[in-house]
Design brief:
about 200 residues, Glutaredoxin, Glutathione S-transferase Yfyf (Class Pi), Chain A, domain 2, five-stranded mixed sheet
């Protein structure tokens, strides 16, 4: 498999899970400004949507969208327990993955626009904060991870997207339970290895 990624983007979650499961894979960086891969390919010829993550499977098929990627990869090694294998528990996983992808990720979008006005930025930060409040409330029952006592692909996904609060300039201090969740996830060896490989921290 080959993962097309951009450092610190949502593709980092897929990268983390590939390492968690010790699956064989290659990395190819995408320059999102130019739309070219590090091998010189037009990334839109690989993923017409134009954004990471994209996973090239061994048969040449391309799979995209974090919620789909994370579940697909987890199901390659079900014994690792990173995704429930059916029923309500699997629906709860999908619930978390979809909220992170469709609500939290989307809310961050305007904050990556260098032309955003002060008023637009204030409104975007408020929208992100509303979504982060959801996770803070969820974690208030003492659970260490989104699905309870067990780490899952949903935690890797949230770690990456919620982590954008730092470079966005407001951080997670208002959400101490969510911040603690991020620190728990960040301490995992696979997370540190993925971040080091993407140049996000010292190896």
């Amino acid at each position: 498999m080959k993962l097309y990624y951009s450092p610190g983007a949502c593709s980092l979650a897929t990268h983390i899970v590939l390492r968690e499961l010790d699956l064989p894979f290659e990395l190819e960086r995408v320059d999102t400004a130019t739309g070219r891969t590090e091998a010189g390919a037009d990334f839109r010829s690989i993923n017409p949507k134009g954004y990471v993550a994209a996973l090239e499977l061994d048969d040449g098929q391309i799979l995209t969208e974090s919620a789909a990627l994370l579940q697909y990869i987890a199901d390659l090694r079900p014994e690792a327990g990173l995704a429930p294998q059916g029923g309500l528990a699997r629906a709860r996983l999908q619930e978390q993955l979809n909220f992170t992808a469709s609500e939290l990720h989307k809310a961050f979008g305007p904050l990556f626009d260098p032309a955003i006005s002060a008023e637009e930025r204030q409104a975007a930060v408020a929208r992100v904060g509303d979504r982060l409040d959801h996770y803070e409330a969820l974690l208030s029952d003492g659970r260490p991870f989104l699905l309870g006592q067990t780490y899952s692909v949903a935690d890797a996904h949230l770690f990456v997207v919620a982590g954008w609060a730092g470079p966005s300039g407001f951080g997670l201090d208002r959400w101490p339970l969510l911040k603690a969740h991020g620190l728990r996830v960040a301490s995992r060896p696979a997370v540190r290895a993925a971040m080091a490989a993407e140049g996000l921290l010292a190896a």
